[in-house]
Amino acid sequence: MLGLKEVYKDYFKIGAAINSLSLQYDFNILKKHFNSITCENQMKYGVVFRDNFEYEFSGADELYEFAKANNMDVRGHNFVWHNQTPFHIFTKSKEEVWQLLTDHIRIMNERYGDITPYWDVVNEAVEDKSSAFLRKSPWLMMFGEDYCNKVFGLAKSILPDNIQLFYNDYNEYIPEKRDKIVKLIKSINRDEKLVSGIGMQCHVNLYYPSIDLVKEAIELYASLGLRIHITEMDVSHFRFDDKQILNMPNPKLEELHAKAYGEYFKVFREYSEYIDNVTLWGVSDKYTWLDDFPVKNRKNWPLLFDENNQPKPALYSIMDI
Ligand code: GLA
Fold first, then answer.
1. What's the rounded Cα separation, in Å, for the pair 73 and 94?
2. Ligand 1 centroid vs 80 CA: distance in angstroms?
């Protein structure tokens, strides 16, 4: 069987979010099928920067070295987010926090920049539970309503020109949220193009969203002159509010799962002129973040390989192009 990355070499890179367990569980699959990785957690600010204001790079280094040894690139994920952030820095003054962030962006680029050509500079800044524009976060509280503009300006001033700066978010296809994301990016790019791309996370399920919503979102983001990465794709067998637990994947749903992946990837190929990277949020169903979200300790079977690392119908459906 060819590797996915071979099948898609004329379209876009194929990525996976990985952690150090993936290097044990999924080593061969990663090498064969993927040419890009995202550190699931290990490059996040709150993970590398410890309570004692010192850096701890071992987790990130391990994944970076794996990527480098295997000619993969790394999607840098991420600098500014309301989660997995070193919240203790906010006890410092505004000027000191800005300096820490400045140092952080520089340090991460110096250490990983040779194979990390894109960074999610801001993750999930837009509010989606109320009519508010931006989500309340310590960054917003400290730096004000235009903090994203400032952070992108800062990243642009520090990072070399060849590094692409991304805004990354979920539910990015839902019209109300999508339009807020568009408003945010337009405002950041008003005087100078600082945001080069949009990360469409694409955490979806068998029932939602419709493929048309995804297409509309791709077209709209592309019309702003943005590069597009699908950054965190997984397709759960369950609707978000469905709390049932199954011991085995239902074969009917497995078929729908393969069909859904096939349709998504067909759309991604159609828009490959704008899309440079499609990343899955995990490798095999042995471990994914959905094992504990939104229901604790439940399998969702969202990925392309099963719990024994065997290819699933979903893999075959996207290989067959
Ligand atoms: C968000 C983040 C990711 C990851 C997932 C859940 O989408 O961007 O880094 O934490 O949540 O695993």
1. 34
2. 13
